[in-house]
């Protein structure tokens, strides 16, 4: 074999090694059966939160991934917009489950710990830790609580006391060029507004408080320029 042949052989072996290394960096996948290469449908890997996820989903808690476990996890991920939807019991899936548990526990008394001021009249409260928002008048709950989707790591929704200063019902972002219906800005470019993704879809917004369309519309009808907004807590994963 000549020099050129040797070089090609080295490149081929190097490329094969890199391909194998890349495969080991992701959970093992069970491919859809019947035929040639098809899209991966379910992971065979046991996730770091396997037992916790199994318990949450009322599956047998044995800490081992099974086809039935994967199907149940994938169903949960699909319902709540958790990606990738491959049935892996990873950090994002378990974090979503804990957030849902906290949101459910809030019930109709989200300000039980009095972390959102009750001496300002009409105010929109945003709890980053539980990914919840609501509107109260003094200590009286007026709307919510509803799930929200706040800033991702590096684009966190800023905490503190603020006021709504600009409202634009059909706003389009000049930075990201996306529609932001029912926008109500309260801190720089950060606003309440509707989005077309689920509230638990990772990794989060670029700082805005994303809402389901019906909730964003209710906020639009209940709030006005000058109304108070209070943001507190810390979003899991940021």
Automatic annotation (TrEMBL):
Could you list this entry's UniProt keywords, alphabetically sorted: Cell shape, Cell wall biogenesis/degradation, Peptidoglycan synthesis, Signal, Transferase
- Species: Streptomyces atratus
What are the GO BP annotations of this UniProt entry?
cell wall organization; peptidoglycan-protein cross-linking; regulation of cell shape
Any Pfam family hit? YkuD
Domain L,D-TPase catalytic, chain residue ranges per copy? 121-232
Q: PROSITE patterns, from UniProt?
A: LD_TPASE
Highest taxon of the source? Bacteria
Task: Write the signal peptide boundaries.
Answer: 1-39
Provide the GO MF annotations for this entry.
peptidoglycan L,D-transpeptidase activity; transferase activity
Pathway membership of this protein? Answer: Cell wall biogenesis; peptidoglycan biosynthesis
For this entry, the protein name equals L,D-transpeptidase catalytic domain
Spell out the catalytic residues: 193 (proton donor/acceptor), 208 (nucleophile)
- GO CC, any one term: extracellular region
